[in-house]
Amino acid sequence: MTATPIRLLLVDDDPLVRAGLALMIGGAGDIEVVGEAADGAEAEELVRRTRPDVVLMDIRMPAVDGITATRRLRARPDAPQVVVLTTFHADEQVLHAMRAGAAGFVLKDTPPAEIVDAVRRVAAGDPVLSPAVTRQLMRHAAGTGADARQARARERLAVLGEREREVAVAVGRGLANARIAAELFLSVATVKAHVSRILAKLGLDNRVQIALLVYDAGLLDGDGDGEGGGAGADGF
């Protein structure tokens, strides 16, 4: 029995970029490009019509930009996963997109095979962002309104129980579920359950957003070692 293809929507204001992406991804037998949009407003309409599993979203676009569009799409009941396209690793706009609910990002000059892999991974529920890159982004944003941001973050985290808070901090350090389980003497299944409850209580979309909130709250002693993390199912 053939698996259902991943439904992908491409969003970029440059038609040549869209054409290149469509050509590049079209060769993957398990991914179907169901539409192309030139800006965020058009993307919202196409999402309603085509119901994609994943949206590959440019950040900088006229009219409705990628960050605004990501926030709106992730608020939908049938929200698709969003991977943002960017030119720079440590771009403040990327950080804003993560806070808006994007599951990760890829650079526009990323090799085709890696872009295809990113689409597959987010479709499977695995955010595409390594702990090292997350820390780089957070350091890039540090210092701007830090005190107010820390107060807001700590207030939000106050709803968590003690064990949930420990798990949240471990996620912020970039640890994999297995590593968190070993450190906190829990089963991997229990860690996953805690992560699910943390996301629900805080109204967040993914582990990257947990990490950002923990960082904002000032709960990380250092940059975190990220050992055992990575961007796969057990990492961010």
TrEMBL record:
Keywords: DNA-binding, Phosphoprotein, Transcription, Transcription regulation. This is Response regulator transcription factor. Gene3D superfamilies: 3.40.50.2300. It comes from the Bacteria. The modification 4-aspartylphosphate is found at residue 58. Residues 7-123 form the Response regulatory domain. PANTHER family: TRANSCRIPTIONAL REGULATORY PROTEIN NARL-RELATED, TWO-COMPONENT RESPONSE REGULATOR. InterPro entries: CheY-like_superfamily, NreC/VraR/RcsB-like_REC, Sig_transdc_resp-reg_C-effctor, Sig_transdc_resp-reg_receiver, Tscrpt_reg_LuxR_C, WalR-like. Residues 153-218 form the HTH luxR-type domain. The keyword Nucleotidyltransferase does not apply.
